[in-house]
Amino acid sequence: MEKQTQTVGKRKVAVARVYVRPRAGETGVILINGRGFENYFPRPTSRMMIMQALEMTQTVGRFDIKVNVKGGGTTGQAGAVRHGIARGLIRIDPSLRPVLKKAGFLTRDSRVVERKKYGLAGARRRFQYSKR
Predict the structure, then answer these.
(1) Residues 62-119: pLDDT tens digits?
(2) Staple partner for 12: which of 19, 31, 44, 76, CB 3.0–4.6 Å?
(3) In whole angstroms, how far apart are CA 74 and each of 7, 27, 47, 128?
(4) What is the DSSP string of 51-96?
(5) 118 and 21 in contact (C-beta within 8 Å)?
(6) Residue 26: per-residue pLDDT
(7) What is the CATH number of domain 5-103?
(8) 82 within 8 A of 20, measured Cβ to Cβ
(9) Cα–Cα–Cα angle for 71, 51, 21, nearest 5°?
(10) Which helix (H) or strand (E) holds 48?
């Protein structure tokens, strides 16, 4: 554990650049787009999703994490941040890989919104049929 690492996490359309470094103060700080972690993600499910990788590896408070995230909605951004944090932890300590891999935090969630097709109301929904 020597210096800062930079990784990228993605989910849906959201992209998160994550900088992980050993903590400078008493406890680790998580900053997202220059704002506090609790301030940026007010929903507890989003905050829980981000903390999963740290809790699973028992590294809560050991690192300062700075994140630049853009694109998508709050859930996609939270998933992108989690993906980036998991990748950053592996760069710092490769022995954490089996734990994070088993939990599925290293796999990019490739599900995205299906595009709308011509002649249809949405991606798959047809227009209403009228017999008369």
Answers:
(1) 999 999 999 999 999 999 999 999 999 999 999 999 999 999 999 999 999 999 999 9
(2) 76
(3) 20, 25, 10, 33
(4) HHHHHHTT-TTSEEEEEEEESS-HHHHHHHHHHHHHHHHHHH-GGG
(5) no
(6) 84
(7) 3.30.230.10
(8) no
(9) 85
(10) helix 44-56
1-15, 30-44, 75-89: range with lowest mean pLDDT: 1-15
Is the predicted pLDDT of residue 1 greater than 90, yes or no? no
Q: Taking Cα atoms as reference points, which of 35, 77, 79 lies closest to residue 53? A: 79
Question: Which residues neighbour 6 within 8 Å (Cβ) at sequence distance 6 or greater?
Answer: 17, 18, 19, 88
How many residues can be counted in the chain?
132
- On the 0-12 / 13-18 / 19+ scale of CB atoms within 10 A, 103 is middle
If we measure between CA atoms, which residue out of 72, 68, 94, 93 comes closest to residue 81? 68
90 neighbors 97 (Cβ within 8 angstroms): yes
Amino acid at 6: Q
Which whole number is the average pLDDT over 21-38? 90
Query: Which neighbouring-strand residues pair with 35?
Result: 32
Greatest pairwise CA separation for the chain in angstroms: 74
